[in-house]
Amino acid sequence: MKKVALSKVAKIDRTVASEDECVNLPYVGLEHIEKDSGSFVDDFIPTPLNMLATNFRFTPQHVLYGKLRPYLNKVILPTFDGVCTTEILPILPIPEQLDRKYLWAFLISPKFVKWASSQVSGANLPRLDPKLLAEYEIPLPSLEDQKRFAQVISHYERLKLQQREAKRQAGILFQSLLNEEFS
Questions:
Q1: Digit-coded pLDDT (tens) for 3-53
Q2: Could you confirm whether domain 2-140 is CATH 3.90.220.20?
Q3: CA-to-CA dists, residue 174 to 27, 162, 181, angstroms
């Protein structure tokens, strides 16, 4: 399988959001992305923050990669247009060359997280330099194989969501039983 620099098949898209976008589009911060799961935290609701600060613009075609403390492994596939903190890098794959879900899976893989964690600079707030990320050579199977892998990942994601919902429902039932018995 060939390897290629990420910059050859995707763009680290640091398009600064306009003032209007910052106050009207949903905001994503690192606190909204779960560690190691590739998911938003349970209580995340995409809403504007109404904050006038420098933010990056993203779309559902991007992969959002948390460059601050990369060992926390905060990577997400947004399903909406929004803005994010500059500690998150929106990465836009070239669709004819790189499947978005394949890129997402690669970025949350233990091998990549280990590499990214070893490349940080800054003692208090360790960050991965976007230039190093752009130069990183990713394995690049055929687009057909990437899409097949993405289908497997999608099936896994559905199972994970079902498991999360079952756990939530079990918690509600448990609290209901306790309330009924002890009230």
A1: 999 999 999 999 999 989 998 999 999 999 999 888 899 889 888 887 767
A2: yes
A3: 34, 18, 11
